[in-house]
Amino acid sequence: MSKEEREMAGDVVARLQSQLQSLQNRVKELEAENAKLVSQLSKCCCHKTEKMHNGSDVKCFNSSVASPRTNNGDDETRKKKASERIPGYNLEIMTHHSKRYVALKVMYFGKRFYGFASEAQMDPTVESEIFKALEKTRLSVGDKKESLYSRCGRTDKGVSAVGQVIALYLRSNLKEADANNNTSGELISGTQTEGEIDYVRVLNRVLPNDIRILGWSPVSIDFSARFSCLAREYTYFFWGGNLNLPDMENAGKKFIGEHDFRNFCKMDAANVHNYRRRVTLFEISSSNMRFEGNQLCAIKVKGSAFLWHQVRCMVAVLFMIGQGVESIDVIDALLDTEKTPRKPQYAMAPEIPLVLQSCHFEDVNFICSSVFYV
Protein backbone atom coordinates (compact mmCIF):
# COMPACT_ATOMS: atom_id res chain seq x y z
CA MET A 1 0.00 0.00 0.00
CA SER A 2 1.39 3.39 -0.98
CA LYS A 3 1.77 6.32 1.37
CA GLU A 4 -1.21 8.12 -0.19
CA GLU A 5 -3.41 5.06 0.20
CA ARG A 6 -2.37 4.72 3.85
CA GLU A 7 -3.21 8.37 4.48
CA MET A 8 -6.61 8.01 2.80
CA ALA A 9 -7.37 4.89 4.82
CA GLY A 10 -6.35 6.72 7.99
CA ASP A 11 -8.73 9.58 7.16
CA VAL A 12 -11.61 7.15 6.60
CA VAL A 13 -10.94 5.40 9.92
CA ALA A 14 -10.77 8.75 11.71
CA ARG A 15 -14.10 9.84 10.26
CA LEU A 16 -15.76 6.54 11.19
CA GLN A 17 -14.41 6.78 14.73
CA SER A 18 -15.76 10.32 15.00
CA GLN A 19 -19.19 9.23 13.76
CA LEU A 20 -19.20 6.28 16.16
CA GLN A 21 -18.37 8.57 19.08
CA SER A 22 -21.21 10.92 18.08
CA LEU A 23 -23.66 8.00 17.94
CA GLN A 24 -22.55 6.74 21.34
CA ASN A 25 -23.05 10.20 22.83
CA ARG A 26 -26.52 10.42 21.29
CA VAL A 27 -27.48 7.01 22.69
CA LYS A 28 -26.46 8.20 26.17
CA GLU A 29 -28.59 11.32 25.74
CA LEU A 30 -31.62 9.26 24.66
CA GLU A 31 -31.17 6.87 27.58
CA ALA A 32 -31.12 9.82 29.97
CA GLU A 33 -34.29 11.27 28.41
CA ASN A 34 -35.98 7.85 28.59
CA ALA A 35 -35.11 7.48 32.27
CA LYS A 36 -36.55 10.94 32.92
CA LEU A 37 -39.81 10.06 31.16
CA VAL A 38 -40.11 6.75 33.03
CA SER A 39 -39.67 8.63 36.30
CA GLN A 40 -42.41 11.08 35.36
CA LEU A 41 -44.70 8.27 34.23
CA SER A 42 -44.34 6.40 37.50
CA LYS A 43 -45.69 9.45 39.38
CA CYS A 44 -48.93 9.68 37.41
CA CYS A 45 -51.98 7.42 37.07
CA CYS A 46 -51.21 6.31 33.52
CA HIS A 47 -49.97 2.92 34.70
CA LYS A 48 -53.59 2.11 35.44
CA THR A 49 -54.42 2.00 31.77
CA GLU A 50 -52.95 -1.49 31.55
CA LYS A 51 -55.54 -2.71 34.02
CA MET A 52 -58.18 -0.80 32.18
CA HIS A 53 -57.56 -2.85 29.03
CA ASN A 54 -58.74 -5.93 30.90
CA GLY A 55 -61.97 -4.23 31.87
CA SER A 56 -60.99 -3.68 35.52
CA ASP A 57 -60.13 -0.51 37.38
CA VAL A 58 -61.87 1.64 34.74
CA LYS A 59 -63.76 3.46 37.44
CA CYS A 60 -60.54 4.40 39.20
CA PHE A 61 -59.06 5.72 35.97
CA ASN A 62 -62.13 7.84 35.25
CA SER A 63 -62.04 9.36 38.72
CA SER A 64 -58.37 10.21 38.40
CA VAL A 65 -58.85 12.23 35.21
CA ALA A 66 -61.87 14.10 36.54
CA SER A 67 -61.24 17.63 37.81
CA PRO A 68 -62.06 18.44 41.44
CA ARG A 69 -63.12 21.91 40.39
CA THR A 70 -66.70 22.94 39.78
CA ASN A 71 -68.13 21.40 36.62
CA ASN A 72 -68.11 24.19 34.04
CA GLY A 73 -68.08 21.98 30.94
CA ASP A 74 -64.35 21.31 31.06
CA ASP A 75 -64.81 17.89 32.71
CA GLU A 76 -66.33 16.37 29.59
CA THR A 77 -63.52 17.77 27.47
CA ARG A 78 -60.88 16.34 29.80
CA LYS A 79 -62.57 12.93 29.83
CA LYS A 80 -62.76 12.94 26.06
CA LYS A 81 -59.06 13.79 25.76
CA ALA A 82 -58.15 11.10 28.29
CA SER A 83 -60.01 8.46 26.28
CA GLU A 84 -58.39 9.63 23.03
CA ARG A 85 -54.95 8.95 24.51
CA ILE A 86 -55.73 5.22 24.36
CA PRO A 87 -56.32 4.26 20.69
CA GLY A 88 -59.18 1.84 20.15
CA TYR A 89 -60.65 2.20 23.62
CA ASN A 90 -63.55 4.29 24.81
CA LEU A 91 -63.79 4.53 28.59
CA GLU A 92 -67.52 5.09 28.62
CA ILE A 93 -68.14 2.08 26.41
CA MET A 94 -65.86 -0.14 28.46
CA THR A 95 -67.57 0.85 31.70
CA HIS A 96 -71.21 0.57 30.69
CA HIS A 97 -71.36 -2.03 27.92
CA SER A 98 -71.39 -5.80 28.03
CA LYS A 99 -69.84 -8.12 25.47
CA ARG A 100 -70.95 -11.25 23.68
CA TYR A 101 -69.35 -13.87 21.44
CA VAL A 102 -70.68 -13.68 17.89
CA ALA A 103 -69.99 -15.09 14.43
CA LEU A 104 -69.99 -12.77 11.41
CA LYS A 105 -70.56 -13.85 7.80
CA VAL A 106 -68.35 -11.82 5.47
CA MET A 107 -68.45 -11.17 1.73
CA TYR A 108 -65.57 -9.51 -0.13
CA PHE A 109 -64.19 -8.97 -3.61
CA GLY A 110 -60.55 -9.97 -3.24
CA LYS A 111 -58.95 -8.29 -6.26
CA ARG A 112 -57.27 -5.42 -4.39
CA PHE A 113 -56.42 -7.33 -1.21
CA TYR A 114 -53.28 -9.27 -0.27
CA GLY A 115 -55.42 -12.15 0.93
CA PHE A 116 -57.75 -12.36 3.92
CA ALA A 117 -55.29 -12.78 6.81
CA SER A 118 -53.09 -9.90 7.98
CA GLU A 119 -50.09 -11.90 9.25
CA ALA A 120 -48.12 -11.42 6.03
CA GLN A 121 -47.49 -7.73 6.85
CA MET A 122 -48.91 -6.71 3.48
CA ASP A 123 -51.66 -4.11 3.22
CA PRO A 124 -54.48 -3.97 2.56
CA THR A 125 -55.95 -7.27 3.72
CA VAL A 126 -59.60 -8.04 4.34
CA GLU A 127 -58.88 -8.83 7.98
CA SER A 128 -57.08 -5.54 8.62
CA GLU A 129 -59.98 -3.57 7.11
CA ILE A 130 -62.47 -5.42 9.32
CA PHE A 131 -60.50 -4.64 12.47
CA LYS A 132 -60.20 -0.99 11.47
CA ALA A 133 -63.99 -0.91 11.16
CA LEU A 134 -64.44 -2.63 14.54
CA GLU A 135 -62.21 -0.06 16.19
CA LYS A 136 -63.86 2.87 14.42
CA THR A 137 -67.34 1.73 15.48
CA ARG A 138 -66.14 0.96 19.03
CA LEU A 139 -67.43 -2.60 18.73
CA SER A 140 -64.09 -4.22 19.55
CA VAL A 141 -63.24 -5.26 23.09
CA GLY A 142 -59.50 -5.76 22.56
CA ASP A 143 -56.97 -7.19 20.15
CA LYS A 144 -57.27 -10.56 18.40
CA LYS A 145 -56.10 -12.51 21.43
CA GLU A 146 -58.33 -10.68 23.91
CA SER A 147 -61.38 -11.02 21.65
CA LEU A 148 -60.77 -14.78 21.07
CA TYR A 149 -60.73 -14.14 17.33
CA SER A 150 -60.96 -17.05 14.86
CA ARG A 151 -61.53 -17.26 11.09
CA CYS A 152 -62.86 -20.10 8.97
CA GLY A 153 -60.21 -19.82 6.25
CA ARG A 154 -57.42 -17.60 4.99
CA THR A 155 -58.04 -17.04 1.31
CA ASP A 156 -55.09 -16.07 -0.91
CA LYS A 157 -54.33 -12.80 -2.62
CA GLY A 158 -57.06 -11.98 -5.14
CA VAL A 159 -59.50 -14.68 -3.97
CA SER A 160 -63.05 -13.54 -3.14
CA ALA A 161 -65.70 -14.87 -0.76
CA VAL A 162 -69.43 -14.68 -0.19
CA GLY A 163 -69.46 -16.98 2.84
CA GLN A 164 -66.32 -16.36 4.92
CA VAL A 165 -66.99 -16.60 8.68
CA ILE A 166 -65.15 -15.08 11.64
CA ALA A 167 -65.91 -15.20 15.37
CA LEU A 168 -64.95 -12.85 18.20
CA TYR A 169 -66.18 -10.91 21.22
CA LEU A 170 -68.06 -7.72 20.36
CA ARG A 171 -69.65 -5.02 22.48
CA SER A 172 -73.31 -5.68 23.31
CA ASN A 173 -76.33 -3.52 24.16
CA LEU A 174 -77.83 -6.25 26.34
CA LYS A 175 -77.40 -6.71 30.07
CA GLU A 176 -77.19 -10.03 31.89
CA ALA A 177 -79.46 -10.15 34.95
CA ASP A 178 -78.35 -11.94 38.14
CA ALA A 179 -80.46 -13.73 40.75
CA ASN A 180 -81.50 -10.38 42.25
CA ASN A 181 -82.51 -9.07 38.81
CA ASN A 182 -79.54 -6.70 38.81
CA THR A 183 -77.73 -6.12 35.55
CA SER A 184 -73.99 -6.49 35.04
CA GLY A 185 -71.57 -5.42 32.36
CA GLU A 186 -70.14 -8.87 31.87
CA LEU A 187 -70.50 -11.58 29.21
CA ILE A 188 -73.88 -12.00 27.53
CA SER A 189 -74.83 -15.64 27.02
CA GLY A 190 -77.78 -17.22 25.23
CA THR A 191 -79.40 -16.51 21.89
CA GLN A 192 -81.33 -13.31 22.65
CA THR A 193 -81.16 -10.88 19.74
CA GLU A 194 -83.98 -8.42 20.41
CA GLY A 195 -82.56 -5.03 21.33
CA GLU A 196 -79.07 -6.00 20.26
CA ILE A 197 -76.74 -3.80 18.21
CA ASP A 198 -77.36 -4.11 14.48
CA TYR A 199 -73.81 -5.33 13.82
CA VAL A 200 -74.44 -5.69 10.07
CA ARG A 201 -75.64 -2.13 9.59
CA VAL A 202 -73.08 -0.52 11.91
CA LEU A 203 -70.09 -2.23 10.29
CA ASN A 204 -71.24 -1.82 6.69
CA ARG A 205 -71.47 1.94 7.21
CA VAL A 206 -67.70 2.19 7.69
CA LEU A 207 -66.31 -0.76 5.71
CA PRO A 208 -65.01 -0.20 2.16
CA ASN A 209 -67.48 -1.06 -0.60
CA ASP A 210 -65.68 -4.29 -1.54
CA ILE A 211 -66.27 -5.78 1.94
CA ARG A 212 -69.78 -6.44 3.33
CA ILE A 213 -71.03 -8.12 6.50
CA LEU A 214 -73.93 -10.36 5.45
CA GLY A 215 -75.10 -11.47 8.87
CA TRP A 216 -74.28 -12.22 12.49
CA SER A 217 -75.17 -14.94 14.95
CA PRO A 218 -74.69 -15.42 18.69
CA VAL A 219 -72.48 -18.45 19.33
CA SER A 220 -71.20 -20.28 22.40
CA ILE A 221 -67.78 -19.52 23.81
CA ASP A 222 -66.41 -22.89 22.64
CA PHE A 223 -67.26 -22.04 19.01
CA SER A 224 -64.34 -21.72 16.59
CA ALA A 225 -64.84 -20.36 13.09
CA ARG A 226 -62.05 -22.70 11.97
CA PHE A 227 -62.46 -25.92 13.94
CA SER A 228 -66.27 -25.87 14.26
CA CYS A 229 -66.67 -25.69 10.48
CA LEU A 230 -68.19 -28.88 9.10
CA ALA A 231 -67.52 -28.17 5.40
CA ARG A 232 -66.21 -25.51 3.05
CA GLU A 233 -67.44 -24.97 -0.49
CA TYR A 234 -65.49 -23.24 -3.28
CA THR A 235 -66.60 -22.16 -6.74
CA TYR A 236 -64.20 -21.53 -9.62
CA PHE A 237 -65.58 -19.60 -12.61
CA PHE A 238 -64.16 -20.02 -16.12
CA TRP A 239 -65.05 -19.62 -19.79
CA GLY A 240 -65.83 -22.92 -21.47
CA GLY A 241 -64.24 -22.06 -24.81
CA ASN A 242 -62.97 -25.22 -26.51
CA LEU A 243 -62.51 -27.15 -23.26
CA ASN A 244 -63.76 -30.74 -23.12
CA LEU A 245 -66.18 -30.32 -20.19
CA PRO A 246 -67.30 -34.00 -19.99
CA ASP A 247 -63.68 -35.15 -19.67
CA MET A 248 -63.03 -32.50 -17.03
CA GLU A 249 -66.06 -33.59 -15.02
CA ASN A 250 -65.18 -37.30 -15.25
CA ALA A 251 -61.67 -36.49 -14.10
CA GLY A 252 -62.92 -34.26 -11.28
CA LYS A 253 -65.12 -37.03 -9.88
CA LYS A 254 -61.91 -38.89 -9.04
CA PHE A 255 -61.23 -36.24 -6.36
CA ILE A 256 -64.27 -37.33 -4.35
CA GLY A 257 -63.34 -39.26 -1.22
CA GLU A 258 -60.35 -39.07 1.11
CA HIS A 259 -56.99 -38.79 -0.64
CA ASP A 260 -53.46 -37.55 -0.15
CA PHE A 261 -53.50 -34.23 -2.04
CA ARG A 262 -49.81 -33.32 -1.69
CA ASN A 263 -49.49 -33.23 -5.49
CA PHE A 264 -52.40 -30.77 -5.67
CA CYS A 265 -51.23 -28.05 -3.28
CA LYS A 266 -48.41 -25.72 -2.39
CA MET A 267 -46.21 -27.64 0.05
CA ASP A 268 -46.03 -26.17 3.56
CA ALA A 269 -43.83 -28.72 5.29
CA ALA A 270 -43.16 -26.44 8.26
CA ASN A 271 -46.84 -26.28 9.28
CA VAL A 272 -48.58 -29.20 7.53
CA HIS A 273 -47.72 -32.85 8.19
CA ASN A 274 -50.93 -34.52 7.05
CA TYR A 275 -51.94 -33.97 3.42
CA ARG A 276 -55.02 -36.18 3.49
CA ARG A 277 -58.27 -34.31 2.87
CA ARG A 278 -61.82 -35.42 2.11
CA VAL A 279 -63.72 -34.04 -0.90
CA THR A 280 -67.47 -34.68 -0.66
CA LEU A 281 -68.76 -33.01 -3.83
CA PHE A 282 -67.45 -32.11 -7.29
CA GLU A 283 -69.49 -30.82 -10.20
CA ILE A 284 -69.18 -28.64 -13.29
CA SER A 285 -72.12 -26.52 -14.38
CA SER A 286 -72.80 -24.14 -17.27
CA SER A 287 -74.73 -20.88 -17.21
CA ASN A 288 -76.68 -18.94 -19.82
CA MET A 289 -74.12 -16.13 -19.75
CA ARG A 290 -71.94 -15.84 -22.85
CA PHE A 291 -69.20 -13.48 -24.00
CA GLU A 292 -67.85 -13.52 -27.54
CA GLY A 293 -69.18 -17.04 -27.98
CA ASN A 294 -67.70 -18.33 -24.72
CA GLN A 295 -70.05 -19.83 -22.15
CA LEU A 296 -69.51 -19.06 -18.46
CA CYS A 297 -68.99 -22.27 -16.45
CA ALA A 298 -68.28 -23.07 -12.84
CA ILE A 299 -66.50 -25.81 -10.91
CA LYS A 300 -67.96 -26.48 -7.46
CA VAL A 301 -65.86 -28.34 -4.89
CA LYS A 302 -66.92 -29.13 -1.34
CA GLY A 303 -64.89 -30.73 1.43
CA SER A 304 -64.20 -30.72 5.14
CA ALA A 305 -60.99 -28.71 4.67
CA PHE A 306 -58.51 -27.78 1.96
CA LEU A 307 -54.73 -27.43 1.70
CA TRP A 308 -52.88 -24.29 0.65
CA HIS A 309 -53.70 -23.58 -3.05
CA GLN A 310 -55.41 -26.99 -3.34
CA VAL A 311 -58.43 -25.86 -5.36
CA ARG A 312 -56.35 -23.81 -7.81
CA CYS A 313 -54.00 -26.77 -8.37
CA MET A 314 -56.92 -29.14 -8.94
CA VAL A 315 -58.44 -26.72 -11.45
CA ALA A 316 -55.09 -26.27 -13.24
CA VAL A 317 -54.81 -30.03 -13.90
CA LEU A 318 -58.45 -30.19 -15.01
CA PHE A 319 -57.79 -27.40 -17.52
CA MET A 320 -54.92 -29.44 -18.99
CA ILE A 321 -57.29 -32.38 -19.34
CA GLY A 322 -59.93 -30.17 -20.94
CA GLN A 323 -57.35 -28.90 -23.44
CA GLY A 324 -56.30 -32.46 -24.32
CA VAL A 325 -52.77 -31.95 -22.97
CA GLU A 326 -53.27 -34.62 -20.28
CA SER A 327 -55.48 -37.69 -20.06
CA ILE A 328 -58.08 -38.36 -17.37
CA ASP A 329 -55.74 -40.96 -15.86
CA VAL A 330 -53.32 -38.25 -14.71
CA ILE A 331 -55.59 -37.66 -11.69
CA ASP A 332 -55.09 -41.27 -10.54
CA ALA A 333 -51.34 -40.96 -11.02
CA LEU A 334 -51.10 -37.74 -8.98
CA LEU A 335 -53.29 -39.08 -6.18
CA ASP A 336 -51.02 -42.15 -5.93
CA THR A 337 -48.16 -40.67 -3.90
CA GLU A 338 -46.13 -43.88 -4.13
CA LYS A 339 -46.25 -43.79 -7.90
CA THR A 340 -45.76 -39.99 -7.99
CA PRO A 341 -43.89 -39.08 -4.79
CA ARG A 342 -42.97 -35.57 -5.98
CA LYS A 343 -45.32 -32.94 -7.33
CA PRO A 344 -44.74 -32.22 -11.05
CA GLN A 345 -44.12 -28.61 -12.07
CA TYR A 346 -47.25 -26.92 -13.41
CA ALA A 347 -48.74 -23.43 -13.14
CA MET A 348 -51.69 -22.91 -10.82
CA ALA A 349 -54.99 -21.62 -12.15
CA PRO A 350 -55.45 -17.81 -11.73
CA GLU A 351 -56.73 -16.63 -8.35
CA ILE A 352 -59.34 -14.01 -9.38
CA PRO A 353 -62.09 -16.49 -10.49
CA LEU A 354 -61.93 -18.44 -7.19
CA VAL A 355 -64.66 -17.76 -4.60
CA LEU A 356 -65.13 -19.18 -1.10
CA GLN A 357 -68.83 -19.85 -1.54
CA SER A 358 -69.91 -21.00 1.91
CA CYS A 359 -68.81 -22.38 5.27
CA HIS A 360 -71.16 -24.82 6.97
CA PHE A 361 -71.77 -24.97 10.74
CA GLU A 362 -74.21 -26.76 12.99
CA ASP A 363 -76.95 -24.64 14.59
CA VAL A 364 -75.57 -21.28 13.44
CA ASN A 365 -78.29 -19.09 11.93
CA PHE A 366 -77.09 -15.75 10.65
CA ILE A 367 -79.25 -12.68 11.17
CA CYS A 368 -79.29 -10.07 8.42
CA SER A 369 -80.10 -6.40 8.70
CA SER A 370 -83.10 -4.50 7.34
CA VAL A 371 -80.57 -1.96 6.06
CA PHE A 372 -77.84 -3.74 4.08
CA TYR A 373 -76.16 -0.89 2.22
CA VAL A 374 -75.87 2.40 4.07
UniProtKB/TrEMBL annotation:
- What NCBIfam families does the record tag this protein with? hisT_truA
| Species for this entry | Herrania umbratica
Q: Which UniProt keywords apply?
A: Coiled coil, Isomerase, tRNA processing
Q: Where in the numbering of this chain does the Pseudouridine synthase I TruA alpha/beta domain appear?
A: 253-362
Q: Which residues form a coiled coil?
A: 6-40
Q: Where is this region: Disordered?
A: 58-83
Q: What is the lineage of its organism?
A: Eukaryota, Viridiplantae, Streptophyta, Embryophyta, Tracheophyta
Q: By its UniProt entry, which Pfam families does this protein fall under?
A: PseudoU_synth_1
**For bias kind Polar residues, which ranges apply?**
61-71
Give me the gene this protein comes from: LOC110426299
Q: Which residues cross the membrane?
A: none
**InterPro entries linked:** PsdUridine_synth_cat_dom_sf, PsdUridine_synth_TruA, PsdUridine_synth_TruA_a/b_dom, PsdUridine_synth_TruA_C, Pus3-like, TruA/RsuA/RluB/E/F_N
Q: One MF term in GO for this entry?
A: RNA binding
Q: Name one GO biological process term.
A: tRNA pseudouridine synthesis
- The protein in question is named tRNA pseudouridine(38/39) synthase isoform X3
GO CC, any one term: nucleus
Has UniProt tagged this entry with the keyword Coiled coil?
A: yes
Q: Which family does it belong to?
A: Belongs to the tRNA pseudouridine synthase TruA family.
